[in-house]
Amino acid sequence: MTFRLAPLRRTDLARCAELETILFPGDDPWRESAFLAELTAGHHYVGAYTDGGLVGYAGLSVRGRPGDAEASVHTIGVDPAWQGKGIGRALLEALLARADESAAPVYLEVRTDNAAAIGLYEAHGFTRIGFRRRYYWPSGADAYTMARPARVAEEAT
């Protein structure tokens, strides 16, 4: 059950797209080209790897200068066979550490019916600040917008 986190590699983008189709079957899963665009734009992406390869991924954008920056979680996904083993938590913590380097508040959207993810986010200081009706397409699932206040490195430890 060991895994390691490392920067997401371009060679893993097909696997990310494959996991998207498994994880988000009722919605419009990201294609390989979407992940490539994220990496090309310089966003912060992390992969979770086992001896068998990529089992999870997460991405974050940070806009602005430190102290005046804002971060947005773009995606977090974990292979269903590996869920419940701390990978999602580790991926989120890696994204939050990156946001904390810029003292940036962090925003995200999460399906209102995803209790496990909501619980994970709340455990990491996120609160619900908004509601987006029919946010996910084509399923029409609703989403909460959640936010975590900016933290500086000393607060994060």
Automatic annotation (TrEMBL):
The keyword Metal-binding does not apply. The keyword Cytoplasm applies. SUPFAM superfamilies: Acyl-CoA N-acyltransferases (Nat). Keywords: Acyltransferase, Cytoplasm, Transferase. Residues 1-151 form the N-acetyltransferase domain. It comes from the Bacteria. One of its GO terms (molecular function) is N-acetyltransferase activity. It holds the Pfam family Acetyltransf_1. PROSITE patterns: GNAT (PS51186). Belongs to the acetyltransferase family. RimI subfamily. This is Ribosomal-protein-alanine N-acetyltransferase. It comes from Actinophytocola oryzae. The lineage of its organism: Bacteria, Bacillati, Actinomycetota, Actinomycetes, Pseudonocardiales.
